[in-house]
Amino acid sequence: MNTVNEVATRHPGQQIVMVAHGGVLDILYRAATRLDLQAPRTWELTNTAVNRLLWTPQGLSLVGWGDTSHLDALGQDETST
Known about the structure:
Layout: H1 2-10, H2 22-33, E1 50-56, E2 59-67
Antiparallel strand pairs: 1-2
């Protein structure tokens, strides 16, 4: 969380892209939804998903989670006639 706070405070009002593994994403989701670290996971941690969070000095908020719509075009067969 310290890194997220540091980066966000250096870029006020800007969009920031961060890439992370599932463990980090799990912690960010819990922080944004105010869930305890010991609470059972009820959300997916999908590979290549776009997860949107809003940072304010009061903390993170969840905007969107697990968006994989950018992968839809990859499932189409480009060689079909």
